[in-house]
Amino acid sequence: MVIKKSIVAFLCVFSFAISFSNVYSQKRHIELKKITTNKVRKLFDNDILIVHTIHKKYKGILKIIDKKMISINGKKIRIEDIIKIEKKE
């Protein structure tokens, strides 16, 4: 009987901890703001994008490395080199 109560108590605490961590977790994203209309668009990890840079065009899944660099399908791109970003739905 004591073992059943301790198992139930453990499961309650464990499920509460999992649900609590998901509620307050933050997703990494990049915010793009249009200067003329002040519209803000958010790009999250694993979004499918087409990124135009000074040198080349990249198409693939977005991974945010840090605040100065992103990765599209494993190819690192500096944010200052980006000219245009298109989001594919």
Summarize the structure.
This protein is of the alpha+beta class. The chain is 25% helix and 46% strand.
Q: Could you explain how this protein is built, in words?
A:
It is a single chain. This protein is of the alpha+beta class and 89 residues long. It has one domain: SH3 type barrels (Roll), CATH 2.30.30. Helices cover 25% and strands 46% of the residues. It has one helix and seven strands. It has one helix at 2-23, and strands at 29-33, 40-44, 48-53, 57-66, 69-72, 75-78, 82-88. Strands 6-5-4-3-7 form a five-stranded antiparallel β-sheet, with no helix packed on it. Strands 1-2 form a two-stranded antiparallel ribbon. A hairpin with a 6-residue loop joins strand 1 and strand 2 (40-44). The model has no long low-confidence stretch (mean pLDDT 82).
Secondary structure elements and their pairing?
Layout: H1 2-23, E1 29-33, E2 40-44, E3 48-53, E4 57-66, E5 69-72, E6 75-78, E7 82-88
Which keywords apply here?
single chain, 89 residues, alpha+beta, SH3 type barrels, five-stranded antiparallel sheet, two-stranded antiparallel ribbon, 1 helix, 25% helix, elongated
